[in-house]
Amino acid sequence: MELLCCMVYCQVGSTGVHVDANARLVVTVNPTLICYPSLKTYKLKYKQQAAGSDLSQIFIYLSASMRKIPYRCYETELPMVSKVLRGGTVLTFDDATQRVRVLRRASVVMQDDRIIAITPDTETEVPADADVVNVDGKIVCPGFVNTHVHMWQSVYRTIGPNIVLSHYFSWLSQASETARVAFTPHDIYISSLQGYLEGLYSGVTSYVDHAHHNWAPDFVEPGFRAAGDSGARVLWCYDVADHDNFPLKEQWEVLGRIAASTISSSLVQPGISLDSLLSSFNRETNNQLQHTREKISKLNLRGITMHHLGGPWPTGNSSPAQICQLNLHSDQCPIIFSHAPFLTNQEQDALRKNNFFVSITPESEFHFGHGQISGRLISDQAALGLDTNWTFSGDLLSQARLWLQTVRQMNFHRALEKGLLPKETPFTVEQGFLMATRQGGLAMKRPDIGVLQVGAKADIVIFNGDSPNMLGWSDPIAAVLLHANPGDIEHVLVDGEFRKRDFKLVNLKSEWSQVRDQFLEAAQRIQKVAEKPPPLPKKLWGVGEMGDVEVASTMLPSRNHH
User: Fold this and answer.
1) 520 sits in which H/E element
2) What distance in Å separates the CA atoms of residue 356 and residue 341, rounded to the nearest whole number?
3) Interacting residues of 266 by C-beta distance below 8 A, sequence separation 6+
4) Which of 267, 284, 307, 432 is the most interior residue, by most CB within 10 Å?
């Protein structure tokens, strides 16, 4: 039996195999996965008795044999290999099994912004001018994907440690007096930039930024510019809103200029948030609705996001079912609902039928009191987000870890309530890892991010693994999700470029010291304005009923009144 192949490195699950009429084994490679195009075809002898139906043995033979082909045999010159991560434990994703596949002592080969090879051969020959990074003993994983955040608010750091959501709107939101009085346009820029850099430092390479700094024309563009200057991959979703001094027509014009100035290959792409528009949509008088549909298409906006709460929270046209009724969805444009803690069965069905995603932000939802009841039921259509990095953790590792244990606790509780002892975990550490990586890419309709595969974007995070909290690891997924922290991240790459190297942020638009000093000045000034909150409203937006909650305390109940 002969092997016909046009690929140097072979991943199980990335090729198709069949035996042709001449009893030859033919390996067909997806063109997007070919590592080195325009290769000469090689015929490799393979023992007939070893073939049969055991394709795993064929792949093992194929990989080993193709690695023996010297570079001088290529018809074309060597590809422009830019970087190689050599000898690490690589967390790839196998499409065939829908599981993480761990490759020990493997190498990741990059050409510019793409991964062109993942090979178990640590001695892979590469061009002399390639940047080869030794990652022996380290864990190489995909960059984390944060599907919901408001970066412009980063400067509020530590304000509102005991805040509830009903108080947030009048105190610190885009509609608050604090935002409109305290911020300058440059504050929006420096606050957003620092937020992105915080995320990059902690391994977040992709974001969906719900950008609602929308109260005046001069405040819009600085947030978009900060996204571009950060070096992160950002779907920047602007919240178009109607303000007396900044009406809808002008808002659309500003977003139009941003969209027109963005090239398709840019790391930052414009999208839209529908929060402020949804309440104006009426299927009976739908001029505004039709105008919005046309703008999304004309401006080639790359994503749609919105908050949705439901349950006891006031809401307007923001549920998955209502978005379908408004005909705002399409196959090309991703739609992400943030929080969605009280999804009905009908709304869960709408998610799956239309491939909508929910961004679950566990620390935010538990901190502010949104609630999160239905998230555990929609893991197949959910990813993770952060929401507000100014009042709790700014890294996605914390969110993934918290959500993993929350789902476990909720499902364990259901068994324990019936008097049954749990016999298995309801949510594995691998599933928690995928929520923070691949699911985020799928939420953005970007299957090439949040995974390490041939053809995927080179958004990569390398954990050192030598710290006291990680030392002795054997299971790399557990090491990352249950033991690591941002300080364990040695390198971060976005689009094949280092953004963190040797534990330090690199390739910054401005020196970190300048960013730090400007951020500190803005934080001190803005927080002075924000330090005294306004009274809590009696009803949220005039309709949401407030209620007492049971208070927990370290003091004995009798002492709580003194």
Assistant:
1) helix 512-530
2) 15
3) 228
4) 432
- Strand order across the 357-360 sheet: 144-149, 204-211, 233-239, 268-273, 304-308, 335-339, 357-360, 382-384
Instruction: Take residue 154 and report the two structure tokens written for it.
Output: 């980063």
pLDDT grade for 488, boundaries at 50, 70 and 90: very high
The enclosing H or E element of 55 equals helix 55-67
The single-letter DSSP state of residue 157 is T
Tell me whether residue 534 is exposed, middle or buried, using C-beta atoms within 10 angstroms of its C-beta: 0 to 12, 13 to 18, 19 or more. Answer: exposed
Cβ atoms of residues 506 and 500 within 8 Å: yes
Distance CA 166, CA 497 (A): 41
Which of 64-78, 166-180, 399-413 shows the lowest per-residue confidence on average (mean pLDDT)?
64-78
Phi/psi for 20 (5° steps) reads -85, -175
Which of the 8 DSSP states describes residue 308?
E
**Residue 198 dihedral angles phi and psi, to the nearest 5°:** -60, -45
Q: Are residues 135 and 88 in contact, defined by beta-carbon separation less than 8 angstroms?
A: yes
pLDDT of 214 over the 80 cut: yes
d(CA 422, CA 192): 44
229 sits in which H/E element: helix 221-230
Q: What letter does residue 533 receive in the DSSP assignment?
A: P
* Per-residue burial over 237-258, b = 16 or more CB atoms within 10 Å of its CB, e = otherwise: bbbbbebeebebeebbebbeeb
Domains of the chain: 2-73 (no CATH), 144-515 (3.20.20.140)
